[in-house]
Amino acid sequence: MDSKTKNRTAATPPPDGGRPTLKTIAFMTGLGITTVSRALKDAPDIGAETKERVRLVAKQIGYQPNRAGVRLRTGKTNVISLVLTLEEEIMGITSPMVIGITEVLAGTQYHLVVTPYSSTKDPLGPIRYILDTGAADGVIISRTEPHDPRVTLMTERHLPFATHGRTEMGITHPYHDFDNERFAYEAVRKLVGRDRRRLVLLEPPPNLTYHSHMRTGFERALRDFGAESVSFHQVNIDYSLVAIRDAFEKLMRSSDAPDGIVSGSGSGAIALIAGVEAARKKLGVDADMVSKVPSDFLRWLRPEVITMHEDIRLAGRELAKAVIGHIEGRPPETLQSLSQPEFQPPVSASMKT
């Protein structure tokens, strides 16, 4: 940056006295507004030195494009909307997913807006709002159902989107998913390897697609490894931790108590452990547990639990790339990904490495 620009940047207030605009940058650099605009858009006919000078000033004064103006000129909002339920916040999914998405969006013109809603209300409500108001160029949704009306609506209205989870409705669309079938299968394998034969599964709600994936893997592994299932359908991972704990304490006190536990949720695993201990039994002695987890907290708090990591931050990155690809018109079948479960080593073993 030359001394003339430095002096203007440091000593001269924006000419309009308000938020920084293209006019502000033009005044401070001595360039025309059109030149500044094209420099920020990386136009090939603008020199590298000029682009760098404009970007430095824009960064120093905190310039952000006016979204209303961008929308008027281009018809785009440069917004990606992440539609999440309140339950996902409780399960600890929101923060790592947002981090993953923003890591990808940081290198683009897009901004993230999180749209929360309650699963007890109409799931189409947030999608209709986005469609009716033109609030976003693309949408990321989760908690997909086999026949998901949100996917139908966005496909019919040509709104680019990506889903955290798959559907079974014959519509090819962008998604990222975790292989819950393999998770459940490998969890049973681990438990049978510890000579546990009476196994229980804390599963997702039956209306969600990954319920059938997890159930399929669990039941196939029971057949393959010669174990049996203990019924536990009174609650699922969407229930309150108190309800899960109470139901599991009752099961552990019964004559039908399991000796192996598969938890489809890290927070649900905490409630299951509380239920085991309320029944005056000991995890690792009377029963072993395998749990899917989004972070290390359970492994550190209860190292006797076998954990498999679901990388929610990776999911955020993959979903961001998928929805941008959909906006850009790439074929949806090229915007699909599936991550695999990874067993986490015991805390003592990881500390040695």
From TrEMBL:
Pfam families linked: LacI (PF00356), Peripla_BP_1 (PF00532)
Keyword terms of this UniProt record: DNA-binding, Transcription, Transcription regulation
Protein name: LacI family transcriptional regulator
Matching PANTHER family: ALANINE RACEMASE (PTHR30146:SF155), LACI-RELATED TRANSCRIPTIONAL REPRESSOR (PTHR30146)
Xref: CDD domains: HTH_LacI, PBP1_RafR-like
Gene3D superfamilies per the UniProt record, alphabetical: 3.40.50.2300, lambda repressor-like DNA-binding domains
The keyword Transport appears for this protein: no
Domain named HTH lacI-type: residues: 20-74
InterPro entries in UniProt: HTH_LacI, Lambda_DNA-bd_dom_sf, Peripla_BP/Lac1_sug-bd_dom, Peripla_BP_I
Region described as Disordered: 1-22, 331-353
